[in-house]
Structure formats: structure tokens, C-alpha cells
Amino acid sequence: MALELMSSAPTDFDFVIGNWVVRHRRLKERLANCNEWVEFDGEMSTQKILGGFGNLEDNILRLNDEVFRAIALRSYDQKTKKWSIWWLDGRLPSQIDVPVVGEFIDGVGTFFANDTFQEIPILVRFIWRQIDRNLLYWDQAFSADAGNTWETNWTMEFRRQRQTCDRAGSKPAPPHASAARDA
């Protein structure tokens, strides 16, 4: 059962709603002058929550021989007009990441957080772009120098999954899921 959405809900993240096949590229080592990328696949399924003032992204990631789950939770603050995004890796079920906070300007979502990486204070940046209805792009970058320079360490390219029907041909098959921050 789908619950009613509120008419005043933001539409910034509407482009991500649905089921996606994901191609991940992640630096083998972060903040270590590494140029070697690891590529892996996944799926993602995202639905609106909180009457449209949030969404929940369910992910399956296939990194080397490991398959794991993760979620991203997004919520919109009507007062600040900003989105917050949290990441929870199923391999660390009691450790939710510090939220990145930001907004969309001219169709590009940019989100920041203060965090640490290997005990070093860093800035984290997420960027979301919709290329077209069926193609999305996301990247994550770290800065260890207060934002003067950035190292992009993870990218994702999302391709919308086609809707398939069950054997009777009457209703969509259940979605599978995937995406991430620290995989």
C-alpha cells in the first residue's frame, strides 16, 4: 500500500525514485595519491517516505566476492530548504554515517559533511546529477585541506531498470536493490 504524498513535498530527488542498475568505481586507497580504481556492480531501489519529504534507498553491492546491503536515508528540512543524507552499511549495522547536508542548484545536488577518515579530519562532498530520465550520476570526494583540493574517490552511474511483469503479466515483479559511501 502506498501512502499519500503531501502536495507541498519537494521534488528535487524525484529523479532517483525507482529501480536502478549501478556501476560503481571506487579508488583502491583514499587520500593516498592512488590512481587505481576498483569497479563493481549493484542495484538500487528508491521510494518516497515521510509524505514525500524523504526517500529511502535500498542497495545491493557486489564488491569482489562480497555481496552486501546498504541504505541511504534522505530527508528534507522545510525550514532550511536543505536535504540531509545518511548512509548505513549492512556490514556495520550499528554505525550510521554523519549526514551530508545540501541542496540542488540548477539541477545539481551538492552536499557536505565534516567527518574523519583514518583519524584525519576531512570534508565529505556528494554530488548528484540527472543526465536524463534513465541515467544518473553520483560522486563522492574527500578533502583533507578544508576544501581547497578534493579527491573524488567513488563514482556511481545509474541506469534505470525496465519494469518487468510477473508470469501472469499483471503486476510488476518485486524490485531488487543497490548504492553507497564506505563500501
The CATH homologous superfamily: Calycin beta-barrel core domain
What is the tally of helical segments? 0
Rg measurement, Å: 17 Å
Bulk shape: globular
CATH level-two architecture: Beta Barrel
Region (Disordered): 163-183
Organism: Massilia aurea
Protein name: DUF1579 domain-containing protein
What does this entry look like structurally?
The protein has a single domain, classed as Calycin beta-barrel core domain (Lipocalin). The two termini are 32 Å apart. It is globular. The model is unreliable at 167-181 (pLDDT under 50). A ten-stranded antiparallel barrel has the order 1-2-3-4-5-6-7-8-9-10. It is built from no helices and ten strands. The chain has strands at residues 18-27, 37-49, 54-63, 66-77, 82-89, 100-105, 108-117, 120-132, 135-143, 151-160. Strand 8 and strand 9 (135-143) form a beta hairpin. It is mainly β and 183 residues long.
Keywords:
183 residues; mainly beta; Lipocalin; 10-stranded antiparallel beta barrel; 0% helix; globular; disordered C terminus
